Amino acid sequence: MRNLVLLVITVFVTNLAIAGYEMQLPIKLDYAEGVLMRSSTAERIRTRGSDEAKAMLEKARNTYKEARIAQQSGKFALANTKADESLRLVNAAVLLVPNKFDEERAAKRRYAELLHQVETYLQWDHEHSVIDADTQNELDKTVIEMEEAAKYASSSDYKKANEFLNMALAIVISARNKSLKERTFVYDLNFETPIDEYNYEETRNEDYQRLVPVAITQRDPPAGIQSLMQRFVDKALIKRHDAEALFKDKSYEQAVSKMQESTTDLLKALKLAGVQ
Asked: Would you state the pLDDT for residue 244?
């Protein structure tokens, strides 16, 4: 008799739960449909979210569809679980989307960094370099890009402004790298003294050192590539230190050779970043 009573109570409670699911499910599923298919939240994930966020949104939508199928099949508990899961997924996805305020603040900070880098390049005093007319014309184009960037920045559209500054920086990097390479061909290699030759190689090495961090910022290579680049930079710094020590010992020819080796390592680092 006691077992029969427990069975009746269990069935009664289960029926109440099913009845509860039946009443609540349409409301919950309609809400889930609105969030997943028509809301500004879903649109934000779709337009500004990472690939991971977009994949989670798609999974959430598929889970919602499974909930609808379960509801139509009378599997209300399963439908309720699927509906909850779809909402959990979309909430997790939206956390992966950058906040608009954070994006704007990051874009403004990036604008300042890019502007400083472009201006630094343009102000370099390459006392040993010869820039031909074509290269100078390329450098002059940066003025147009910078003017466009300033126009958008004045209206706080830093994202658009950064597009123009990135173009300006790419022009400057390419032009400066070209001018550095051309030094080997335009510079009079009949140095008056070994010290003159060393000073030339030292300045050339310093210019390439400056180029590496800016190239990383502008090209944004993967972490693995950056790590490999840093190895070449570390080697270059060691060889530069050796060259300086040799110069102090008045071993000028060896100092020049070691400084050239250092520059070669810097060139290898730049090549990894895509700077030819």
From this structure: 93
Position 179 scores a pLDDT of: 62
Give residue 243's pLDDT: 93
Q: What angle do CA 205, 209, 210 make, to 5 degrees?
A: 120
Query: What is the 3 state secondary structure string of the chain?
Result: CHHHHHHHHHHHHHHHHHHHHHHHHHHHHHHHHHHHHHCHHHHHHHHHCCHHHHHHHHHHHHHHHHHHHHHHCCCHHHHHHHHHHHHHHHHHHHCCCCCHHHHHHHHHHHHHHHHHHHHHHHCCCCCCCCCCHHHHHHHHHHHHHHHHHHHHHHCCCHHHHHHHHHHHHHHHHHHHHHHHHHHHHHCCCCCCCHHHHHHHHHHHHHHHHHHHHHHHHHHCCCHHHHHHHHHHHHHHHHHHHHHHHHHHCCCHHHHHHHHHHHHHHHHHHHHHCCCC
Question: Is the pLDDT assigned to residue 19 strictly greater than 50?
Answer: no
Both tokens of 257, joined, read 């050779």
Query: Does pTM surpass 0.85?
Result: no
Q: Domain residue spans in the chain?
A: 2-94, 100-272
